[in-house]
Design a protein that fits this description.
By secondary structure, this protein is of the alpha+beta class. Strands 8, 9, 10, 12 and 14 form a 5-stranded antiparallel sheet that branches. It contains 17 helices and 16 strands. It is about 40% helix and about 20% strand. Helix 4 runs antiparallel to helix 17.
Length: about 475
């Protein structure tokens, strides 16, 4: 559902294609398809939704740029330490073995997108998408340097001059500086940001850090400064499959055709009913403030990112001319058609239930995960050996991973065979914080206790102190055929 279908009672009038082909030469049609991109100059707008969008930008960028500088327990609060295969997240340490939790978090994020899109359209695109957030900042910088929309258009149309070069160079210098700091901050989530800053000040950055800072800085500069709405219209896949999550009860930014048409300019005090006019005065502000350059009066379009700038602009105009607000508003197709609206409907319950179950599962898994791990590797060079006292012995290597931020001491036991004996040479099983400890161990059992060539045994590793936590790992004990 990209727009209202022709013939729909709320659809705006559509020109006859035959008349278009007859009136527009084929060369002009081809030129329109392949013409150079026309730059969009979004007009600054104020209002309720603009305030919410600005607040979202400040909060999200504040978190992005601020979190790497916060330490918790001597460690950066969010750090993806790839060389050491440790991931620090708000005081928790995750290892590659914990990637199931990352998978759950990604699935929760996807289900949240489906849930909120079903309820209120493209909220993510309009308020939280990185492309939207960084483009908003680049627009602020552009308005600060070049002025309002009219000043920007006049500057671009003006002939080349020293003043024009100075203004453009200032804008791009600020864009590049901001983009490079964005790249620096992004890399700071993978390399401790204080070490990264020290390396930059002493010109001692490694080649990979330098490459990724420049790469992400260039990506930010190109996407938010140059491509802008082209990313949303042609590169982002979300606009293409959003219709799978929309229905006639989804809240979308819509133009009230029945109330606004026929549109037209009028003088103050004109009796619009006598003049045969609707509430839309055809001022064009809804188009001027749109960051993707569309006309919302043409119906729902996949280019619309639901930023609600057109709502703020139209409400301001309606207030000035004395008409009720809401000519452009958040509403549903059913509401526009005068039909009952169902906010709580089956797909909302399904998405909500799945989201609730996944969130509960992730929370329970993270809260109950063990702070250490045990892997057993059996010695394959020799299946078994017979000791001097006639017992059968197997050799294993235990890999003990301490996931905590302080050293831990453990006790080890083995079960599964009557009279099973466990031996190892280490005086104590103590593992440093975040370290992996290799412990060779020997299991021996009497031959008369073995009823099969291969018998299941189990290693039990328990932390000392309180609270005591235990993990178990299965293994096989090999002996001679009975």
């Amino acid at each position: 559902m990209n727009r209202l279908e022709p013939g729909h009672p709320l659809a705006p009038p559509v020109a006859d294609p035959a008349r278009i082909e007859a009136s527009v030469p084929l060369d002009d049609l081809q030129r329109a398809l392949y013409e150079k991109r026309q730059k969009v100059y979004p007009r600054e707008v104020h209002g309720l939704f603009a305030g919410l969008r600005y607040t979202g930008v400040v909060v999200l960028l504040g978190l992005f740029y601020g979190l790497p500088w916060i330490d918790l327990g001597g460690t950066q609060i969010v750090l993806w330490d790839l060389p050491n295969r440790k991931f620090h997240l708000f005081g928790l340490v995750f290892w590659p073995q914990d990637f199931i939790y990352l998978t759950l978090l990604l699935i929760i994020a996807a289900m949240s997108l489906f849930f909120f899109t079903t309820l209120a359209g493209r909220l993510w695109c309009g308020y939280a998408c990185p492309q939207t957030v960084w483009t908003e900042v680049f627009l602020w910088i552009e308005r600060f340097v070049e002025g309002s929309r009219i000043h920007q258009i006049r500057l671009d149309q003006a002939p080349l001059s020293l003043r024009k070069v100075r203004i453009k160079a200032t804008k791009h210098a600020l864009w590049i500086a901001f983009a490079l700091y964005t790249g620096f901050t992004f890399v700071g989530y993978f390399t401790p940001i204080r070490e990264l800053a020290a390396g930059m000040t002493t010109l001692a950055l490694g080649p990979w850090e330098s490459f990724w800072i420049l790469f992400y800085g260039f990506a930010t500069y190109g996407n938010a400064g140059w491509l802008r709405e082209q990313v949303c219209k042609y590169m982002c896949p979300y606009a293409r499959f959003q219709s799978a999550m929309f229905d006639a009860d989804t809240l979308i930014v819509s133009y009230d055709v029945r109330r606004g048409e026929p549109r037209g300019a009028r003088r103050p005090g004109t009796d619009q009913q006598a003049a045969g006019l609707g509430d839309c005065i055809n001022c064009g502000l809804c188009v001027q403030v749109c960051p993707t350059g569309i006309d919302i009066r043409n119906g729902l379009q996949h280019e619309c990112i639901s930023c609600s700038a057109c709502i703020d602009a139209c409400d301001t105009v309606m207030e000035k001319v004395g008409y009720p607000k809401g000519l452009i508003r958040y509403t549903t197709e059913h509401a526009l058609a005068g039909e009952p609206v169902r906010v709580l409907r089956p797909r909302v319950f399904v998405y909500g239930a799945i989201l609730l179950v996944l969130t509960a599962a992730a929370a329970w898994g993270i809260a109950s995960r063990t702070p250490f791990a045990l892997d057993v590797i059996r010695d394959r060079n020799q299946l078994y050996r017979e000791t001097d006292d006639g017992r059968i012995e197997n050799v294993y290597t235990l890999k003990i991973l301490n996931k905590e931020q302080h050293p831990r001491r453990y006790t080890l036991n083995a079960t599964g065979i009557d009279g099973l004996s466990l031996a190892y040479d280490a005086p104590a099983i103590e593992v440093d914080a975040g370290a992996v400890f290799d412990l060779p161990v020997r299991l021996s059992a009497g031959e008369d206790q073995l009823s099969a060539r291969s018998t299941a045994v189990q290693f039990e590793l328990r932390t000392t102190g309180s609270p005591a936590v235990e993990v178990r790992a299965d293994a096989r004990f090999i002996g001679p055929a009975p």
